[in-house]
Amino acid sequence: MSNQIDTALRAMTVAVRAASACCRAVQAAMTDADAVRKDDLSPVTVADLASQAIVSRALAEALPSIPLMGEEDASPLRGGDRAEIRAAVVRAVARAGAELAEEDVLAAIDRGTHAGGASGAFFTLDPIDGTKGFLRREQYAVALALVVDGRVTAGVLGCPNLAGGRILSAARGRGAVAEEMNGSGAARVRVSGVNRSADIRLAESVESAHSDRGASESLAARLGTSAAPVRMDSQAKYALLATGGADLYLRTPTKPGRTEWIWDHAAGVVILEEAGGRVTDLDGRALDFGAGRRLERNRGIVATNGLVHDAVLAALS
Ligand code: AMP
Ligand code: MG
């Protein structure tokens, strides 16, 4: 099993590195006019679909027996009126080193239909987490995780705009590592040592629709923290905590009953936990990644450096 996880983590890292380079190239070529084009022709759509094609294809070659749950499918590329974007995605995939025919690109994207569940192994992928951040040229992430029997066992986060570009990765029980985009400079990462509630640095979404700001303000007041929250798109927030740059990431549903997609958290959770952090839902329950495409059995997210976790949960209850 441990050899299998090493093999999987290596293949996952190679796949995320290639997809991250592809996203970076699409973003570099994007003009401000492109960024506001209508959604199905926007560069973020091209990068999103190319990223899923690249990761899916790489995983299918390295680990063909493990199915993939991807956020995207190829429907935005199908149909006679989609030739322009279809060609753009094929070009973006080719630039990343995979010369694939159009049909193979579509098939690779559509391979990501796995429904998840509590038994067996599957990958879960967000090909671009933080699409709004991508368009603003701020933070976004390529997020890939391996879930085995409902538990995340390995994860890789490609963060092309974090500290000049970083890939973070972790396998359960082996610690978390950050490296540069080209794979050099790999080093273990570790959460902060902050243990006083008043010193907690909070990270939250840039998009106010994604998490209840009022809830984080009232929590901050109860904890006695005065620092302004760090607002950042995507799972780069988990990377920030895993490297000691913030101590709490809070996500409170804006509507009762709204649950989180598993690909928005799986990679970040194992990386943060392996860096010494802790992640539960708002009620202190462990996250259950075996409930399908969403975290159906959990309410919101509390991710911390571990040291302040109990104090945060107490302040929430
Ligand atoms: P973030 O950049 O942390 O705000 O997270 C981006 C992710 O938020 C996207 O990948 C979406 O899946 C997710 N998202 C979209 N709408 C909502 C919502 N209303 N509540 C929570 N998450 C959302
Ligand atoms: Mg996402």
Overview of the molecule:
There is one protein chain. The chain is built from ten helices and twelve strands. With 317 residues, the protein is of the alpha+beta class. It folds into two domains: 2-188, 2-Layer Sandwich (Fructose-1,6-Bisphosphatase, Chain A, domain 1); 197-316, D-Maltodextrin-Binding Protein, domain 2 (3-Layer(aba) Sandwich), CATH 3.40.190.80. The strands form two sheets. A seven-stranded mixed beta sheet has the order 1-2-3-4-5-6-7, with helices on both faces. Strands 9-8-10-12-11 form a five-stranded mixed beta sheet, with helices on both faces. α1 (2-29) packs antiparallel against α3 (43-62) and α3 crosses α5 (102-110). The longest helix is centred in the N-terminal third of the chain and has 28 residues, at 2-29. The protein is globular and about 55 Å long. Residues 129-130, 205, 207, 209-210, 233-234, 254, 258, 261, 264 line the site of adenosine monophosphate (AMP).
